[in-house]
Automatic annotation (TrEMBL), chains A, B:
Designated gene of the protein: aspS
Positions annotated to bind ATP: 218-220, 227, 480, 532-535
GO CC entries: cytoplasm
InterPro entries, sorted: Aa-tRNA-synt_II (IPR004364), aa-tRNA-synth_II (IPR006195), aa-tRNA-synth_II/BPL/LPL (IPR045864), Asp-tRNA-ligase_1 (IPR004524), Asp-tRNA-ligase_1_N (IPR047089), Asp/Asn-tRNA-synth_IIb (IPR002312), AspRS_core (IPR047090), GAD-like_sf (IPR004115)
Listed name of the protein: Aspartate--tRNA ligase
Main EC class the enzyme belongs to: ligase
Keywords for the protein's UniProt record, in alphabetical order: Aminoacyl-tRNA synthetase, ATP-binding, Cytoplasm, Ligase, Nucleotide-binding, Protein biosynthesis
Subunit-level organization: Homodimer.
UniProt-annotated stretches for the region Aspartate: 196-199
Subcellular localization, as worded in the UniProt entry: Cytoplasm
CDD domains for the chain: AspRS_core, EcAspRS_like_N
Amino acid sequence: MYRTHTCGELRMEHVGQQVTLAGWVQVIRKISANLSFVDLRDRYGLTQLVIGDQLLTKFSEQPLGREFVIQVKGVVRERSNKNPEMATGDIEIVLDDYTILNGSKVPPISIMDNSNDSDELRMKYRYLDLRRNAIKQNLELRYRVGREARNYLHTQGFMDIETPFLIKSTPEGARDFVVPSRMNPNEFYALPQSPQTFKQLLMVSGYDRYYQIVKCFRDEDLRADRQPEFTQIDCEMSFVEQEDILNTFESMMKHIFREIKGIDMKDPFPRMTFDDAMEYYGNDKPDIRFEMKLVTMNETVKNKGFKVFDDAELVVAINAKGCSEYTRKQLDELTDWVKRPQIGMTGLIYVKHNTDGSLKSSVDKFFNEEQLKEWAAKTGSQPGDLILVLAGREERTRKAMSELRLEMGERLGLRDKNVYAPLWVIDFPLFEYAEAENRWVARHHPFTSPKPEQIHLMDDLSQYGNIKANAYDIVLNGTEVGGGSIRIFQRDLQEKMFAALGMSEEEAAHKFGFLLGAFEYGAPPHGGIAFGFDRLCSLLGGSESIRDFIAFPKNNSGRDVMLDAPSAIDDYQLDELYISLVKQEPA
Amino acid sequence: MYRTHTCGELRMEHVGQQVTLAGWVQVIRKISANLSFVDLRDRYGLTQLVIGDQLLTKFSEQPLGREFVIQVKGVVRERSNKNPEMATGDIEIVLDDYTILNGSKVPPISIMDNSNDSDELRMKYRYLDLRRNAIKQNLELRYRVGREARNYLHTQGFMDIETPFLIKSTPEGARDFVVPSRMNPNEFYALPQSPQTFKQLLMVSGYDRYYQIVKCFRDEDLRADRQPEFTQIDCEMSFVEQEDILNTFESMMKHIFREIKGIDMKDPFPRMTFDDAMEYYGNDKPDIRFEMKLVTMNETVKNKGFKVFDDAELVVAINAKGCSEYTRKQLDELTDWVKRPQIGMTGLIYVKHNTDGSLKSSVDKFFNEEQLKEWAAKTGSQPGDLILVLAGREERTRKAMSELRLEMGERLGLRDKNVYAPLWVIDFPLFEYAEAENRWVARHHPFTSPKPEQIHLMDDLSQYGNIKANAYDIVLNGTEVGGGSIRIFQRDLQEKMFAALGMSEEEAAHKFGFLLGAFEYGAPPHGGIAFGFDRLCSLLGGSESIRDFIAFPKNNSGRDVMLDAPSAIDDYQLDELYISLVKQEPA
C-alpha cells in the first residue's frame, strides 16, 4: 500500500503517529521562505501538510504543482490554527519526506466547486471534471441510492436477474439502436429500449419478483437532459393487482428517502387520475408542492361578447395568492412570458382582486365588476389575489397554463427543493392518437392491460380514446420518476391489442411471436414498474440536470466528446459485417 | 393480491387456516372417482391440494391441466400421509374452490428436473426451461453470488459506478460489436469489451475504489461455452501494489465461498509463477486439487539411442499413483486417447513400477532396468505407480501432457467437484508473439505494467519474450475465474507500450488520446481485476456449462433462438442510419 491512512481520516487521536498518505496536491500556500502548507486531497477528504526547514532543498529542486500525485511521510501534529470546517481540521502532518508519483500539467478546467467552465470543455476533460467535489458527491449519492434500492428489493424477495443486451429489433414507439451481426450477415441485433418482454417472460417462468438496475437505449433526437443510454430500476411482480404494486414501490420510495435524505415521507402517497391531473394541473405530472389549480372558466366567461373568449376552445384561470399588487411592469413581463414561442399564447388576461375587495381587470371593457365577482367566486380568489387567465385552443392553452402555474409557483417560492411531494397518477388512457402517423398508439406500451371492465370497448374504434389502462406513474415534484402497468397476460387480448395498433397478424408473430407463444403455456397475472434511475438520483441530489449524475454522459448530439465517439471505423470492419456506408446528400 | 401465502410457506402451525394460493399445476393425481390431488407450484415451493366431493362438478366442467395457472381457496389440513422430502409435506389444502387464471397447452419440453430435451428446443422455449428447478436454483445462486460480491465490496469502500455502453471502437485484441449512429451518420459506436479505460479514468479522477457488475461484449467466433455478451465483476483500486489487490480479492473469494457454500477457504491462497505453471502443469491455469506434476525428462532420456526421444524437443512424464496394474487394454485406450486429433500425439510410453519394485516399460528394447530406475527417481514413482511419458514438439507435447494429467486426475477421482482449490498465477509475460499477425501483442492488454525493473528491456525487441508483467490470474480447479494487472499510469511508458505493439503515434492518439491525455494530469498508481461472473457462478454451482447460469443465453452461432435474433431490419432503418447491406458471395 502506498498509504497508512486516507486524507479524510486523521484526528486528534492520531497526534504523534508516523503516517504515510497519498493523494493530489489541491493547493500550495507559501507562508514564508521556509514554510509552506499543502492541502492533500483524495476521495475521502483533505489533509494539511507542512513543508518546513528539513525539506527546503528538495522542495526547490522537486517543486510541487496543483494536481501532482504525491506520497508523503510525516508525523501528525495538532494544529495551532484549527479549521472547524474541515473534518481533519484539528491536525496537520509535518513532512519528513515526499515522493512525486506523477506530475500534472496545469488543468484546463477548474477542479474547484464552482466551475465556470463551458459544458463542452468539462465534457472533454470529464476525468478532471469528475474530481470536482460536487460531481463526486453526486456519484456517491447515486451509488447509495442504488444500494438502498437493492437492499429494499432484497427484503421484499425480488431477485436481480440479468436480461440480454443483444436482442431483436421491434420498433414500436421509440427507435432502436441496432448492431450488425458478423456471424449472421445482413442481420441485426437491437439494444433493448427496456427489458420489458424479458421481465414478462420471467414472470411466465415463475420468477415471481424480478428487478434489475439496467442500462436501456433509445435512439431519439436528444432534448436537453435526455441521454441515448440511461438507467432504469426495472421491476416486475406476479399474482398482483395495481394496488399491490403501488404499495410495494411507495414503500421503496419511502425507504430510499429515509436512508438517503433522512426524510420520512407520509404514506399513503396521494393518488390522482390522469383526467384530474389534466384538468386541474394541465399535465400528467403535477407538481403538488402547491395548489393553484387550473379552473376552467368557459361557462363563466363565454358568450359575454368578448371575442377572444368566445372564439376560444378553452378559457382557463389560476389564482395567484397574494399577487394583487403586481405592477404594470410585472404584468407586462408575465404577458411577454406567455407570448414566448415555447409557450405560444397571444396574450394574458388578469383580474386584480384588490385588498379592499374591489376587482380590476385587463378586460374591464367587456366585463363589469359584477361579472368579475363571478370570476372571483369561481377561482376562489380572496382580496390580495391575482387571477390570471389564458384562452385559446384547448391543448395548447392547458399546457401554457400548466407552465404559467409552475412559473408563478417558482416566483412565489412554492417549489422548495427541500420539500418532496410524491404523487401517483393513475388511470392513464390506454391509447393516444398519433396525428403524424394517423393511427392509435399505445400510450404506455402495447403490453399494458386495459381496465378489465373496458376490454369490450376495444371492439369499437370510436371508443379508443375513452379506454383507460391499469397504468400508473409516480411523480415527484412535477417530474415523472417512474411508471408502469398491469400487463396483458392472455394471448387473445394481446393479439387484440396488437391488431388495435394496426399490426398485422404476420407482423405480430414476427416481432412478438415468442411472447404470444409464452402466453399459451401458463402465464400468470403480472405487472411492474420502471424508475428512471438517473432522474431519481438528480431529484434526490436537488439538481435539474441528470448529466451531473452520470459518470460519462453524452452531449446533445449523442457524442462522447472525451472519447470522440461515435467515430469512423475501419473498412475491414465494415467488410466483415457485410455493410457499406451510404454517403449523406449535401444539405 | 391473488394469494395469502406462497406455495412454500405452509406448515403444521397453519392447520385450520383459510388460505388462498396461486401457482402452476405441477401434477394431477387422480386417486378415485371423487378424490384428486394436485401439486401446486410457485417460485417458493410445492403444496398439495385436495380436490374432493364438493368440487366434483366443477372439476369435470373446468378440468385442470399441467402448467395451468390457478388460484385456489381452501383450508389447511394435516396430512395423514406426510412427505418428509417436501418442505410443506406435513400439510395439504382441502379446496373450497379454484379459479383458472390462465390455461396451458401441453408444454413442448419437460419441466421436470431431468430433462432430456435437446438444447435447441430448450432454448426456443427458454421461458419454460427456466421453470425447471435446476435452472431456477442456478439463477438464485447467481443472484446470491452477485449480492455477496456487492456486500463485500461495499464493506471495502468500493463504489459501483456505471460506465457507458456506447463507446469508441478501438479494436486491439478481440473484435468489437459496433453500433451505427443515426445522429452522426457514417460513424459508429462500439459496445465495450470491458470498462477497462473507463475504470482507469475513474482512478485518474480520484474515485480510489471502483467496481461494477457489468455486461461486456466480444464479437468472436463462439466456442462452446462462450457468449457474445457476458458479465464481469470489474474492479479497480488506486495507490495499491499487486500484493494489495491479491489480498483484497482473495478475501472476496473467501467471503463468497463462506456465504454461498459454507466453505472456509484456507488463506493465503497458493501462488505460482506463470513459468512454474507451464513447467509443472503444462498450462497457465493449473488444477491443483491434485499433484501429478509434469517432469521434464530430456536430460534423463535423450541420447540413449531411442529416436523418438532423440528427435523430440520435449520428453515429459507424469507419475500416476497406484496405476501399475493398468491392463494392456487400459493402456491401449490411453494411447488412443492421446492420439485423438484434439490431443494430437503419435504415441504414449509407459513404465509400470510394479509392486514388487520391478520396472516394466513399453520401451524395454531401448532402456534397461538400470536406466528405468533413473526414470523412477526423476519422477518420484514408487512401487505400484505408473509413469506416463510423451515426447514431441515442445508446445504441443506440454499441452498434451497437461490434458493427460487432467484425464488421469479425473480417472483417479482426484477432481472432486466439492473440493475448491484456488490459486494465484502471477508474473505473466507482458507480451506474446502472434504468429498470424507476425508481431508482439499484449498478453493481458496494452494497459498492463511491465515489472518496473524490466522496463528498460522494452528498448530491445529480442528481450520482449522475457519481460514479465505485474499481471495475475485467479484460477479455481483448473479454470480461470479472474485476472488483472497493475496498470501503466505514466504517459511515456504507455506510449512506449503502444509503440511496442506496432501502433503509430497517430493511431495511439486517435484511439487512446483521452487516456494518454488523462495520464498528464495527475494519474495515480493503480491496478485492478475482473472476474468472469458467469464462470464463477457455474463453478459455485458445480457445473461445466455457463449457459445454465444465464437467463437468456445465445447459441454457438450467437443467436437467441427464442427471440429469433439477430434478424433482418426494415429498409427505413437502414436508410436512417446511412448504411446498406452488402450481399454475401455464395460460398
